């Protein structure tokens, strides 16, 4: 399977933070959800992918080559969606369209008009005055109208009400009907990804914790409940983290099949949500 983006052993050090030996791929034709708590390094990694900052070492390839090779062509093929950041803040959508259309070889004016109308974006409002949800929708409409193949979204649903969130997720799901498109989507709202992601990449403190397809993660992980007296030292090694209460334990395992074989009759094993995986892996559940 072709990769839209590939990171190999990437390092980037700031004074108080480092991306360390990070390797993962973004598969072409799929939605990859990029999760991690505040300050995990998601935006830094997105900036590295887009060549907005440079890595100290390691290799980053976009569409199979270094970003700077055929850079203009790459910019045509990528749509970067970031709710708080817009060019042309003081133009109306109508005026911005005229400016931006010149930059993109594949710009489709009719398609853009249809998105603006359908998403009920106000043609005559200055971009600076758009709400957060409208700004995100506008960015997506722009990316789709220049036929971007790779959409990179930095927390597109954060701070949005459930209706706007749903509209954006529906729009992205619609985009994915086109099998040539790839979406890389950072968020800490893991429930968004339960709906639309095919792959999950999970980072914490600049390090990779998990990068796999969602079905494998669902099979591998489980939330287990049972009596505390079952937890001997060997059994504990099968858990990522365990919470003990007066009535029993609840723990996250990444060896659900083995737990089922060993303890199946004595415990209850449920599907672990992405939120469970995040909380148990990095926090104190
Ligand atoms: N230019 C910079 N100089 C120094 N430190 C930086 C710089 N940019 C980011 N950082 C630090 O890198 C760390 C990761 O930040 P980043 O914005 O990548 O995290 P994030 O996962 O996107 O967080 P959030 O979910 O809160 O948006 C933070 O500690 C941040 O302060």
TrEMBL record:
Gene3D superfamilies: P-loop containing nucleotide triphosphate hydrolases. Keywords: ATP-binding, Nucleotide-binding, Transport. Residues 5-230 form the ABC transporter domain. One of its GO terms (molecular function) is ATP binding. PANTHER family: ABC TRANSPORTER ATP-BINDING COMPONENT (PTHR42939:SF3), ABC TRANSPORTER ATP-BINDING PROTEIN ALBC-RELATED (PTHR42939). This is ABC transporter ATP-binding protein.
């Amino acid at each position: 399977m072709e990769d839209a983006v590939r990171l190999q052993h990437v390092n980037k050090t700031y004074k108080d933070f480092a991306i360390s030996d990070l390797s993962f791929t973004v598969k072409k034709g799929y939605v990859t959800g990029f999760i991690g708590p505040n300050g995990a390094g998601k935006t830094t990694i997105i900036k590295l992918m887009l060549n907005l900052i440079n890595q100290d070492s390691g290799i980053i390839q976009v569409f199979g080559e270094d970003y700077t090779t055929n850079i203009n062509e790459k910019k045509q093929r990528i749509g970067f969606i970031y709710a708080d950041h817009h060019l042309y803040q003081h133009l109306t959508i109508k005026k911005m369209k005229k400016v931006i259309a010149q930059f993109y070889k594949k710009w489709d004016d009719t398609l853009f008009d249809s998105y603006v109308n359908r998403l009920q974006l106000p043609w005559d409002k200055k971009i600076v005055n758009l709400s957060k949800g409208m700004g995100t929708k506008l960015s997506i409409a722009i990316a789709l109208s220049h036929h971007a193949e790779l959409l990179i979204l930095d927390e597109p649903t954060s701070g949005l009400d459930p209706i706007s969130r749903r509209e954006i997720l529906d729009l992205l799901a619609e985009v994915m009907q086109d099998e040539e498109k790839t979406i890389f989507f950072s968020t800490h709202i893991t429930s968004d990804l339960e709906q639309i992601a095919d792959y999950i990449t999970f980072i914490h403190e600049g390090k990779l914790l998990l990068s796999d397809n969602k079905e494998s993660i669902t099979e591998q992980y489980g939330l287990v409940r049972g009596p505390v007296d079952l937890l001997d030292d060997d059994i504990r090694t099968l858990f990522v983290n365990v919470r003990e209460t007066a009535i029993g334990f609840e723990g996250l395992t990444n060896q659900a099949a083995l737990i089922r074989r060993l303890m199946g009759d004595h415990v209850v094993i449920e599907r672990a949500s992405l939120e469970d995986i995040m909380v148990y892996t990095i926090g104190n559940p």
